[in-house]
């Protein structure tokens, strides 16, 4: 199957976007894909902000993006924009790094008003970065993700089903790309 890199702009593994990223990794792995999670917060901050592509962890992250067949970009929405962590990593990518890759933007946020960040901010950014196969994004409201301290930190059933449904066209895009290169 395909290799998928899940880029998480979550401030922590237990924050809501981190919970969504983990769920996506689990679902894609169960579907037979190789799914790796790249938590941008774990990259060396100074090297990331200084755009030090020679730093080993930054170089490895860029190589992971390059070698992936598809990307899932998970970001919290803050004040109608994606995470600065996501933007910091995407800014390091060389021109054309996303060409031909299936890309699925996902976001979490406090209200339905944050939904517009997917279509009017994150998707255009991905296209501007050279992505040619950006699928419609999917938004998971914060209220549909249990607080990590109050339970399992799980995505509630209706949102989980909707998220799994959003992965179907992404997986179809991966299969089509795989068939073209075979």
UniProtKB/TrEMBL annotation:
GO terms for molecular function: oxidoreductase activity. Residues 3-139 form the NADPH-dependent FMN reductase-like domain. It comes from the Bacteria. Keywords: Flavoprotein, FMN, Oxidoreductase. InterPro entries: Flavoprotein-like_sf, FMN_Rdtase-like_dom, NAD(P)H-dep_FMN_reductase. Pfam families: FMN_red (PF03358). PANTHER family: FMN REDUCTASE (NADPH). This is NADPH-dependent FMN reductase. It comes from Actinokineospora bangkokensis.
